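Hello,

I think I submitted the adenosine-5'-diphosphate job twice by accident. Can you confirm which output corresponds to this input? Input:
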Amino acid sequence: MKVVQLGVEFAPIAKVGGLGEVIQGLSRELTRQKVQVDVILPKYDFLDVRKLSKLKVEVPEFTCLGHTNAMWSATCEGCSLHLLESSSNYFRRGKIYGCEDDTTRFLYFSRACLEYLKLKNEPINILHLHDWHVAVCALLAKEIFSLPIKAILLTIHNGEHQGKSAPWDLDAIGLKGADFLHPDRLQDDDRAHPKTLNLLKGGIVYADWVNTVSPTYAKELLTTSIGGPLSKTFRKYKDKLSGLLNGIDQTIWDPSNDPNLPRPYAASSPLPEILSAKEAARAALRKRFSLSLTHRPWVGSITRLVPQKGPELIEQGLRQTLTLGGSFLLLGSSPLPKIQKHFDKLKEEFAGNPQTLLHFEYDEGLAHLLFAALDFLLVPSHFEPCGLTQLLAMRYGTLPIVRATGGLKDTVFDEGAPHPQNGFVFRDLDPTALTATLQRAVSLFQNDPEKCNKLLIRDMKQDHSWTHLSKNYLDLFRNL
Ligand code: ADP
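Support: Only one job matched these inputs. Its output is below.
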């Protein structure tokens, strides 16, 4: 079986969040299972070529919409990559997202990928598209290109990002944009914007199957409260919509073999060894930041600070944890200046408090160390398609405290759930629900360490690996 993955992130060389991690983890596991997987990605200027092996030019020159391109091939993290280099400056911005012409850049990438596939003309079983950035490929493949593709699958990693665009954006890639301004095609479902096209909607309409990253999120997208105006389209196509949980790459996220940790530990290690390795991680953090952070438990968040992630609840978690006698550690940063400014102020407010660490940058190694050092990870999202941090936390013996939404609801279970308890869950988006749950967790930590440690071991033993979860994708591929 041959699968081509199209997306704009790939961990660790081009990762902003879960999208890159999922494309990499799933591709590596499928490759391991003898599926022929090819991942196509822009050849961004910031790619660290030292992390690529066998880098070479695969197709020296082909044109797309007046620009000259080359396709490079390489291997990375056990995956076969194809990197699109373009004479346009679309991928020479030092970053993946946040440029004014993101829509133009990704539409161009989509069209160039299909030009390349046309050039190769090799039979493909599944063209797997990830998120709005490449969703237009479903449309291009059906309207313009005649390619030997058996089925097109669109996976939605975050339905909030939809790629709203204008008809002339499609004109620029050789489609007649005005023709698609129709409710059955790409016209945005928000009645306030009748002249707007919605690229994600195009993917939903034209793909053979649409998948999202957890069963609960697949149901939530059908509701206006989470799916928004696009819920109308999700409801229309609900018979080709599924929700398959994400896995994690347990080779990269492995406390028994993690170069970022001072001391390795595994689920099978004796409990005192696990606890002292986690203590060693805390000691390393204290030393690195010259902080005392003596109060336990350590509660923290590792996250993009955007409205989806409940920044106001993270702040409340910080204040509440300190009141309850613990320490709070936040690793995150915000692409939104207003939110970042607010957290900068918060950092100033707590500058003299030795029980807090507020660190605002993207630091992969530090994230690993934090997952090991924390006692609890707080994920109070307003919505969460799947969420990876709760899974990573459990792998490192850190108990998640989450809001019951999307993939958080499908993977974290509190007392009384039909599954054995592995964390703490609150339902309502109000401060009292969070406070009560945090209190419960801290109280368990302080008053019943035996039970707390039992949960820690249980969490470490869970299997959220792609080895286990890629089977669902394979079944879907075969059905398609
Ligand atoms: P999303 O994709 O919505 O950001 P996920 O929970 O699916 O959320 O994935 C987030 C990924 O990004 C996790 O691997 C997490 O560890 C990582 N991450 C988030 N913020 C940071 C940061 N500031 N530094 C390092 N890693 C981070």
